[in-house]
Amino acid sequence: MRYQQINNTLFQKNRYHFVSKMKPNTIAILTSNDVKHNNADDVMGFTQNNDLFYLSGIDQEETLLVLYPDAHKKENKAILFIKETNEQIKIWDGEKLTKQQATAISGIDRVEWVQDFEMLLQYMAFEADGFYLGHNEHAKRVTKDQKTQQDRMIQWCKTKYPLHTFYRASKITRALRQVKSDEEIALIQKAADISVDSFKRVLNACKPNIKEYELEAELTYNLIKSGATRHAFKPIVASGKNACALHYNTNDAVCKDGDMILLDFGVCYANYNSDTTRCFPVNGTFSKRQKEVYSAVLHCLKEGSKLLKPGVLPADYETKMATLVEAQLIQLGLLDAKAVANQDPEKPLYKQYFMHGTAHHIGLDVHDVGLYSRTMEPGMVFTCEPGIYIPEEGIGCRLENDYLITENGPINLTAAMPIEIEEIEALMKNNK
Ligand code: GLY
Ligand code: MN
Ligand code: MN
Q1: Which end of the chain is more exposed for a tag (fewer CB within 10 A), N or C?
Q2: What is the CB-side half-sphere exposure of residue 231 using CA atoms within 13 A?
């Protein structure tokens, strides 16, 4: 693996917390993700299912985890199923995990080959009253129709064991994964540290007429060289008005002298992610207007991030952040104070220039699992990412850091990434 092996006490603790929330006499089955194919014999690569990773640390395809805490036989309490290798796989793909390696990574003593799963489960199934199964429960993306291994496992299990009771494993993992342990925070910090160096490399390379994708290449070079697994998401390198399209990522335009670039990127290290946004002038010097807009967003970031405290409801935080941005939009002459005072609260005027939320959980997923009806707690990690987008001026500005919530105020895990106007101009001053 590219990353330093994680101490398996993390996964043992995670399993301990998970099984303590299961109903009596139930079995949990967690699946890995599919290797996704694109064309011919090519594949898009593999990204582990994050609930399986959280509970086992196994980063290999065709893995299953079975947890049966009330099993009367001790050896059935936790079983990891992994892919059995063979000569063909060795010749073409190289080594796969041995059972001993899988035990060392996960801390699970009993490891079996995945082809034995159905038979071994059957020995336990009728002792149990129900199953916990995984499913992607993200508000913005729910899969169905056998699209994922999870979907297929749900269908298979419900067909084979129709009279058992079924429960949602992700309801438990979502509750647990929101609050990060020290080990997880250290991994997010590592991702953040790689992102700081990567950003500096981009600043160093930037000059008029460079292509957006050339800056993307600087990021990619640095993060792969630093041991990151991949980009946390396809990076956004958006110059000029491209920055006003929130998820722009074609990154194929020429960066013009006088424009500002919005760079929103994340680093995935050991499956943990950072997510940061910075803006900087193509030619190394902010124009007067760029400075005004940038300073307004930076003010919102500095003030808004102070609101990330235990006990705060995310929705209340978002309302306060919107008020901060609204005041800046008035100062920038984009909104009229009287019109704002008389606006329809259902259709606030600021949404014309600021149309997204400004805090999401981050961890194993970039938009990490977590319910926004739960108040903030120490150990949660949130982004803070206010923005102002003015297409008619060709300026889009967002600034984003990652904050750990603590009893003593938020800790900025991305504090080392340059953000002050003077810092950025100084770092770009020798660019040719
Ligand atoms: N890059 C996606 C986000 O900032 O949430
Ligand atoms: Mn981002
Ligand atoms: Mn974000």
Answers
A1: C
A2: 18
